[in-house]
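ENTRY TYPE: paired fold submission
RECORD: A
CONTENT: sequence, then structure tokens
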Amino acid sequence: KRASVPVDRPSGERPNSVRRDGEDALAQGLDAQQKIFASNPDDRRAFEALEEHFFLEGDWPALVRVYRERIEAPSIVDDPAQKGALLFRLGQILEDRILDLDAACETYWTLARIDRTNRPALRQLRGIHERRGQWDMVLQLAELEAATTMPPYERAQFESELGRIWHRRLGDRGEAERAYARALALDADFPPALEGLSALCLESGRKDEAAALLERLTVRLRGPERAPFWLALGRLYALDTGDRERARRCFAAALD
């Protein structure tokens, strides 16, 4: 026989005392961890518990306070590696969650002054100044970033991004072409560099070079990624060379 469920009101609702007890226990545990951390920011367990809690709750101001207090802990303040990791996490929260770009920049610059080779911090700074249209700062940061160690793929990506900035934002085709060439020296068919250079060639009337670059893109890429470049190649053949048969084949390939 099934046991009856006790009720706490005439309406027939189940008691919620167990749930309330659980919430009270969590609140007491959080309060205890906050007291421990406030008295000793070096307490790793308390820090990690608070970090996890505030992150999962999305309480970003509280998480920022925890990070700042942890950064000033005696065991952290003079340890560049630990301090740098915390500064970067703090910068990300300020940038992406709090949306305080000034505070995020200050945090990333603090990290960059500790370690001038910290590429993630330099990259985040470059991104913020790019969104603000502060191109002199973008170029200064790119110069610092270029001096850091990168694997070939990342350097090719970096040079392609730099080429895009020179081309699209600063209108310097010569610098853009040199940046794309540096990327292609690392990977002869690196798609972002081929795409940027093909657009540059089209703008400057170098149709044959543009066509060759677009052809290379259709070979390097796979599946739907190729469609925009087949279309660009088809338009080039149709409008600039009058080769309608090649244009037709390109448009057909875009639909495959």
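RECORD: B
CONTENT: sequence, then structure tokens
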Amino acid sequence: ALPSILSITPAKVKKALKPNDAAIEFVCYYDNEQKDTVYAALLLSPNVPAKHIYLFTKKEFHGYKFNRFLDLETCVCEASDKKKNYIYRDTALASKIWDPLLKEIPHHVNRIYSAPDGLLQMLAIEYLPHPDLERFIINRLTSTANIYTDSREIKNEKSLVIGGVVYDEHQIMGNEAKDGEMNHAAYDYFINQCGRIAFNHLQSTVVEADSIRKIIPVAVGNDSIYTTESFLKQNMGKYSIVHLATHGYSLNVMVKN
């Protein structure tokens, strides 16, 4: 899978874009001169040369102050609604992120595909209070490479879609322990950080899986055999598309750690 992803060049992504599209791939990398990680963006749009746009340093961005005592990293990494509201009401923060990009995006563009990195992954930057964002349709991606892969015709191959999972830790973890093949490093880390947490059954994920089944041919797994870590690790590679309708959980761990 990795060689396939690495083979997707900027030229392929650019070719997959429509005339009024732009793609923004955010990147973080260490800058020896500034002795800090810096944030930047790579901008692609048809018929326009690719551009690297410098944004800010990690220290400048993570330490952005809403008031004397509260910075961006704290607001992002803590669960307080009050602290989150600081982020999505701050026009100066919105301008800090978007102004350098909007200066470079061609005027005819009305759709933006963005793939965040670093702390930006934990921000809904498309919903920040910037008046110039209203003219765009903004689609969030894990990688702008998805623009190319999603543009290819979906073949009549079955995909794996899992929804309606019944979360039974003892049953699932017990079954997996017997095979002796899989480690549970991620699970153990979660338990160490947060303790044991019950995950409730999500009825809406059944609806989600059924909705996808109407669009593309899928093998929908609602039985417990399809929802173990062992099954997924051993079988996901057999499918061209895998969709997991399940809980999303963010560990309350500070990014700087």
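NOTES ON RECORD B: The chain has a mean pLDDT of 80. The CA atoms of residues 109 and 230 lie 45 Å apart.
STATUS: closed
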